[in-house]
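Consider today's protein:

***
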Amino acid sequence: MIKRSRWTKFRESEGATGLLMLSPTALYAILMLAAPLGTIILYSFLTDGYLEIIRDFTMANYIEAWTNDLYRSVMIRSLGVSMSVTFVTVVLAFPIAYFVSFHVEPSKKSLWLFLITIPFWTSYLIRVFLWKVILGYNGVVNSGLMGVGIIDEPLTFILYNVNSVVITLAHAYAPFAILPIFVALEKIDRSLLEAGQDLGESKFVTFCRVTLPLAMPGVVASVLIVFIPTIGDYVTPQLVGGPEGRMVANLIQLQYLKLDNYPLGSAIAVSAMGIVTLVSLVFLALTRRYLKGPKG
């Protein structure tokens, strides 16, 4: 009998077929994602020159990014805004997802999900502009409040500051938070809730002890889906944030396109990515007991 080599066995195995199917996607990811990311990391250790990048290794860019009061305050503000947006979005998204999952007829759930995704039909830029109109000095909110006599003069704290950024981002990312929570709620076995109430627990206690823990994987997914992109959002702070609402992405854009300081801009970008990664890992560590699933 002729023995087949290990390479021949591997080539004919299911693992080799899977790798062959994944290879185009993997190559695309490396070329389109890993290569630009590696370039940014490389730039962050180089020296800025006049209209050129000097290939001298240095840590000065990171020192400047972490010791400069302006850069440090913008990073802290970005982290605070992203956490606020995440908290507001998830807290408001959970009741909506719960209502659709538990109180809407199964035949109408697809319609409700369809309605939730309607904001995606319009451009993100248009939605931001609409919030600028709504929150403006003579916008819908101020005009409405003045019309019913609640205020005598337009409110100035709802636009061109952190508040307007949080409101706009919370609306923009609401569907991203609702859908994962809805999927997690749909997977809950309703008989578990009935068993809790049969044992004498109230609906609220059953929700806290059964529904909420089982829905936590969806909540965790929603938190990460909202938190990670919002900290690097550029359009919303640029249009509705004003000087008080600028975030780290606006700072990176300033370094790259206005000051032509690619190394410092790259160092700020890498620092922001490091902060996002650290906070996300800490959050996952704190919630890992909810992600393990029920023990068999």
Q: What stands out?
A: The chain has 15 helices and two strands. The mean pLDDT is 86. The chain has one domain: 72-291.
